């Protein structure tokens, strides 16, 4: 048999095998890894995976695998077999931030993972502890300038988007504030709620109904949020401040067969439209993203550009 015919038959066999696998998928439990501690990304992701269980006809089980700023759980998925039974839910910004750490990044978001689809995005804020004597971003800046080095801000880890936000805020506002890293967005939000730190950059979802126990000074973005129209935008005070999109999204390992990618994407979109998910998103002030795998790939590219710009602006070293 001629060589070119053997190659063609082999390629056709692989395509047929992938198609058959997709038709049988899923035939067992699907694990979804969240590489952060409980109380952050997993809160809404668990509602989504519960809805996906109903749609897919097999248990979709969410597991927290925190550590090393999300790297431990993320690498677990990177090394998993590309069969659709081990997936990753993470903040797209966290997946990108490793590219800017010193040394060799442990993975590359475009090379080592397969985008499946967006889940949701939270409305980001700048919040301060209840006892801090400020009621606006301008008052916070003035207070910080009168007390250089005395205020603290929480982030979800060194090198996290919230670390970058804090350093960008310091640079643009011309203030000296101490960075206090925590192990995840949930612990960082709880720190400002409890008054352990002065400032944080949580989403409304991270605050989990504790808006009254902290002062939300501004929406971290160019526009006000319709549900809280009296809270100004950060850009009202710092016009050039730009947040990094922290979209929560679903990924698989590299080389995940396209038929499985499209099946999971379709089931994810159905789950996002379920009444339970819509109610949970509304309750936690988050918005559905959805979209195609290609949309998610474009989002990653945009986050890389925004992160690179902020890191260049601040000059911070992510080690």
Shape: globular
Task: Compute the number of strand runs.
Answer: 11
Radius of gyration: 21 Å
Order of helices and strands: HEHEHEHEEHEHEHEHEEHHEH
Q: What helical percentage do the residues reach? A: 40-55%
Strand order of the largest sheet: 2-1-3-10-4-11
Helices and strands: which structural class?
Answer: alpha/beta
* Count of alpha/pi helices: 11
- Largest sheet, strands/sense/barrel: 6 strands, mixed
The first-level CATH class name of the largest domain: Alpha Beta
Under the CATH scheme, which architecture of the largest domain would be assigned? 3-Layer(aba) Sandwich
The third-level CATH topology of the largest domain is: D-Maltodextrin-Binding Protein, domain 2
* Weakly predicted, low-confidence segments: 10-16
How many domains in all?
2
Round the mean pLDDT to the nearest integer and report it.
87
Q: Termini separation (Å)? A: 56 Å
Structure description:
By secondary structure, the chain is an alpha/beta fold. It folds into 2 domains: about 25-120 and about 245-315, Bordetella uptake gene, domain 1 (D-Maltodextrin-Binding Protein, domain 2, 3-Layer(aba) Sandwich), CATH 3.40.190.150; about 125-235, D-Maltodextrin-Binding Protein, domain 2, CATH 3.40.190.10. The protein has helices spanning about 5-25, 40-55, 70-80, 90-95, 135-145, 160-175, 185-195, 205, 260-270, 275-285, 295-315; strands at about 30-35, 60-65, 85-90, 115-120, 125-130, 150-155, 180, 200, 215-220, 250-255, 285-290. A 6-stranded mixed β-sheet has the order 2-1-3-10-4-11, with helices on both faces. Strands 8-5-9 form a 3-stranded antiparallel β-sheet, with helices on one face. It has a two-stranded parallel sheet with strand order 6-7. Helix 1 runs parallel beside helix 9. It starts with a helix and ends in a 5-residue tail after the last helix. Mean pLDDT is about 85; it is low at about 10-15.
């Amino acid at each position: 048999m001629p060589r070119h015919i053997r190659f063609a038959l082999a390629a056709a066999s692989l395509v047929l095998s992938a198609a058959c696998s997709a038709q049988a998928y899923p035939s067992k439990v699907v694990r979804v890894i969240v590489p952060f501690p409980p109380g952050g990304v997993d809160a809404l992701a668990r509602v989504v995976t519960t809805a996906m269980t109903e749609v897919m006809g097999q248990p979709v089980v969410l597991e927290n695998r925190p550590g090393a700023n999300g790297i431990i759980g993320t690498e677990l998925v990177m090394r998993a077999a590309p069969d659709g039974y081990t997936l990753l839910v993470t903040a797209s910004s966290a997946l990108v931030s490793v590219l800017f750490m010193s040394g060799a990044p442990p993975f590359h978001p475009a090379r080592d993972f397969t985008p499946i689809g967006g889940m949701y995005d939270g409305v980001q804020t700048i919040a301060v502890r209840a006892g801090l004597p400020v009621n606006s971003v301008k008052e916070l800046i003035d207070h910080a300038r009168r007390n250089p080095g005395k205020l603290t801000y929480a982030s979800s880890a060194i090198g996290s988007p919230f670390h970058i936000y804090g350093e960008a805020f310091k640079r643009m506002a011309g203030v000296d504030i101490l960075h206090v890293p925590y192990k995840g967005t949930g612990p960082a939000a709880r720190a400002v709620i409890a008054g352990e730190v002065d400032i944080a950059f949580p989403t409304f979802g991270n605050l989990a109904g504790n808006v009254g126990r902290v002062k939300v000074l501004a929406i971290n973005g160019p526009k006000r949020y319709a549900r809280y129209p009296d809270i100004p935008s950060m850009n009202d005070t710092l016009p050039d401040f730009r947040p990094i999109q922290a979209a929560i999204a679903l990924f698989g390992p590299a080389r995940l067969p396209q038929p499985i990618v499209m099946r999971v994407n379709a089931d994810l979109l159905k789950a996002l439209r379920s009444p339970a998910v819509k109610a949970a998103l509304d309750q936690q002030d988050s918005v559905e993203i959805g979209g195609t795998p290609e949309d998610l790939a474009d989002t990653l590219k945009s986050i890389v550009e925004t992160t690179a710009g902020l890191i260049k602006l601040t000059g911070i070293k992510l080690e």
